[in-house]
Design brief:
CATH topology of chain B: Rieske Iron-sulfur Protein
CATH class of the largest domain in chain A: Alpha Beta
Number of strands of chain A: 26
Strand content of chain B: 25-35%
Strand order of the largest sheet of chain A: 3-2-1-7-20
Protein name (chain B): Bifunctional 3-phenylpropionate/cinnamic acid dioxygenase ferredoxin subunit
Number of domains of chain B: 1
Structural class of chain A: alpha/beta
CATH superfamily of the largest domain in chain A: FAD/NAD(P)-binding domain
Radius of gyration of chain A: 23 Å
Largest sheet of chain A: 5 strands, parallel
CATH topology of the largest domain in chain A: FAD/NAD(P)-binding domain
Radius of gyration of chain B: 14 Å
Number of strands of chain B: 10
Structural class of chain B: mainly beta
CATH architecture of chain B: 3-layer Sandwich
Enzyme class (chain B): oxidoreductase
Largest sheet of chain B: 6 strands, antiparallel
CATH architecture of the largest domain in chain A: 3-Layer(bba) Sandwich
Order of helices and strands of chain B: EEEEEEEEEEH
EC number (chain B): 1.14.12.19
Number of helices of chain A: 12
Distance between the termini of chain A: 31 Å
GO molecular function, one term (chain B): 3-phenylpropionate dioxygenase activity
Strand content of chain A: 25-35%
Helix content of chain A: 10-25%
CATH superfamily of chain B: Rieske [2Fe-2S] iron-sulphur domain
Domain Rieske (chain B): 2-96
Oligomer: heterodimer
């Protein structure tokens, strides 16, 4: 294997690159990253990154030219490659073959772009990895045999092996996104949100009571904002934690100073009329934007917009004047209530970034379909992290993204599945001063037993028991007993796999 | 020099956190005493609540591991060391000598035992914010 291309330069992609070198791959290593940044850690974006105002003042500003200068692209990319383009011959020496301007290591300016507190790597490791970093570039396709990765700047990377680590994107409400409405997934998202949160007290509505929503709400409360969390389900986090523990987490919102409204969806967003040049055809006044969406994200209705086709693509081009859909003023709930809002955070889940693989022969279905060893349906293609559906499970956990690459790379280099992922699921969340940690698989009919502390005291260890065995554990501010239990669960799992 | 606790109050395998700025964790690793900055160099987690095995402590949040003798990480996700601090036992009381906060982390000298550590450099004695308070290991806070 001469060349391996890692598509995705975030946590899982970086770990894959590390594993490739650690496991002896000494060929050409290419990393393709859609964002202009070197790999950074996302978990702090909803926590300290938002609340640390000192850091806000010192953070360098991202400029549009950063990505372009790193990749040589400035033109609007065509991401809608036709199948003919996608499967065009990729061998030979014609323009478009191979990488014309490889970056042996990322330029210094890019290192500076990433908040040092978030950086997952450093110049020394960048040098050691000896990889070509193509940052600010989207992959647009994979050839039929997985032997070439097509890029949105027109280049093609001919490769022998592919690691797909393209992650997931925050799900958005359908229709255009008025100013003041945010998702929180990327550094750019977090910077934009933070900018809105540092302009004095705001009325913040968080749509979705999952972990991102809860952490963001907690951060907003800490910053002194008036915060309401809207959750479509009867309680947030029931799928993750079960009803008993979900109830505890719901109380964290209330005790922490946020309002929690459950059992209601969002009917739409109200927005202020944008200031358009005269002659503009758009309506003025406070206009509802009926989206009919369900905050749980269970229904995805991309067509559900009532603002006209000319505006449906404006969400990413807010700076383009006439397309600016105005500033949000309120969130209208499906039960008719209207919540005034200056800032809206949409935390309704994420969808795996597999769009660039449509039209290829790679099996995709809510993620890249992989066997239990992260091996995809094409030879020499593996997938890791949020985009990978490994053995039927797609886990959007930080820990999964760090644990899968070792196995995936081993199988990639072995050209077959010689090892499967056996890691115990683990995730954590920090909200309202409480640290929540969870490990294991929670059977739906598990019984919950508190074995240390008490929910009333704000610190406890809860075991999820099923068929006489401990299947999972949840801790709130109880790290040591949790660590012990997590180790026991891991040992139990290793023994039974 | 910050008094920590009586030697007998920190049995082998236990740790204690000092609410200094930044906080410091003191460990009794099978009889050898170590002190390091308590906050994991990767993300905000208290190493005093970590898993102690030999002279390695595993962070309770993401399982980064640090060598208490040097402060160096022994595995990802931590990539930067934590500072180490000298420990002494004076008249049966454990003391921590805070490292110069501006100093870059360097490998610590061998852990000091009760017999080996009876002097406290004056410069270090002045650097502590005062008496360290104990939060105790296994604390739910």
């Amino acid at each position: 294997m001469n060349t391996v291309t890692v598509v995705g330069a975030s946590l899982a992609g970086l770990y894959a690159a590390r594993e490739l070198r650690a496991q002896g791959f000494d060929g050409r290593l290419v990393l393709v990253g859609a964002e202009p940044h070197l790999p950074y850690d996302r978990p702090p974006l909803s926590k300290a990154f938002l609340t640390d105002t000192d850091r806000a003042a010192s953070t360098p500003t991202v400029t549009d030219s950063a990505g372009a200068s790193a990749t040589g692209t400035g033109a609007s990319p065509d991401r809608e490659h036709s199948p003919a383009t996608r499967t065009s011959p990729t061998t030979g020496t014609a323009p478009g073959t191979g990488i014309h301007a490889p970056y042996e290591s990322a330029p210094e300016s890019q290192l500076a772009l990433t908040d040092p507190e978030l950086a997952l790597t450093d110049p020394e490791e960048i040098t050691d990895l000896a990889a070509e970093w193509l940052l600010g570039v989207h992959a647009t396709g994979l050839d039929q045999h997985g032997r070439a990765v097509l890029l949105d700047d027109g280049r093609t990377v001919v490769t022998d092996g592919v690691v797909i680590a393209t992650g997931a994107s925050a799900r958005r409400l359908p229709g255009p996104q008025p100013a003041g409405v945010h998702t929180l997934r990327t550094l750019a998202d977090a910077r934009a949100l933070r900018a809105d949160l540092t302009r004095g007290p705001r009325r913040v509505v968080v749509i979705g009571g999952g972990f991102i929503g809860a952490e963001t709400a907690s951060s907003c409360v800490a910053l002194g904002h008036d915060v309401t969390v809207v959750e479509a389900a009867p309680l947030p986090l029931i799928p993750q934690l079960g009803p008993d523990m979900a109830m505890f987490c719901a109380d964290l919102h209330r005790q922490g100073g946020a309002r929690l409204l459950t059992g209601t969806g969002v009917a739409g967003l109200h927005r202020m009329a944008p200031a358009y040049p005269s002659g503009d055809a758009y309506s003025s006044g406070d206009a509802a934007q009926p989206g009919g969406t369900d905050p749980s994200g269970a229904t995805d209705r991309p067509g559900a917009t009532a603002l006209g086709s000319s505006r449906t693509r404006s969400s990413r081009t807010e700076s383009r004047g006439p397309a600016n859909p105005g500033h949000v003023t309120a969130v209208e709930l499906s039960d008719g209530r209207i919540l005034p809002a200056d800032v809206v955070v949409v935390g309704i889940g994420a969808t795996p970034n597999t769009g660039w693989l449509s039209g290829t022969s790679l099996a995709v279905g809510d993620g890249v379909l992989c066997d239990a060893g992260c091996v995809a349906s094409l030879p020499q293609v593996v997938a890791v992290g949020d985009v990978a559906r490994v053995g039927g499970v797609r886990a959007e956990h930080w820990t999964s993204a760090t644990e899968q690459p070792r196995v995936a790379v081993r199988n990639l280099l072995a050209a077959q599945t010689v090892e499967t992922v056996t890691a115990l699921p683990y995730f954590w969340s920090d909200q309202y001063g409480s640290r929540i940690q969870f490990a294991g698989h929670r059977p739906a009919d598990a019984t919950v037993r508190i074995t240390e502390g008490s929910p009333d005291d704000g610190g406890f260890l809860a075991l999820y028991e099923h068929a006489g065995r401990v299947a999972a554990a949840l801790a709130v501010n109880c790290p040591r007993p949790f660590m012990r239990t997590r180790r026991e669960l891991r040992a139990q799992r290793t023994a039974t796999v | 020099m910050i008094p920590v606790c009586r030697l007998e109050d920190l049995p082998a395998g236990e740790s204690v956190r000092l609410d200094t700025t930044p906080p410091v964790a003191v460990f009794n690793a099978d009889g050898a005493l170590y002190a390091v900055d308590d906050t994991c160099s990767h993300q905000d987690a208290s190493l005093s609540e970590g898993w102690l095995e030999g002279c390695l402590v595993e962070c309770p949040l993401h399982a980064a591991s640090f060598d208490l003798r040097t402060g160096e990480p022994t595995c990802l996700p931590a990539r930067r060391p934590v500072r180490t601090h000298r420990v002494s036992v004076v008249d049966g009381t454990i003391h921590v000598h805070l490292a110069d906060p501006t100093a870059t982390p360097v490998p610590a000298s061998a852990p000091l035992t009760a017999a080996a550590s009876l002097s406290a450099p004056a410069a270090l004695a002045a650097s502590g914010p005062g008496r360290g308070s104990l939060t105790g290991e296994g604390s739910a806070a």
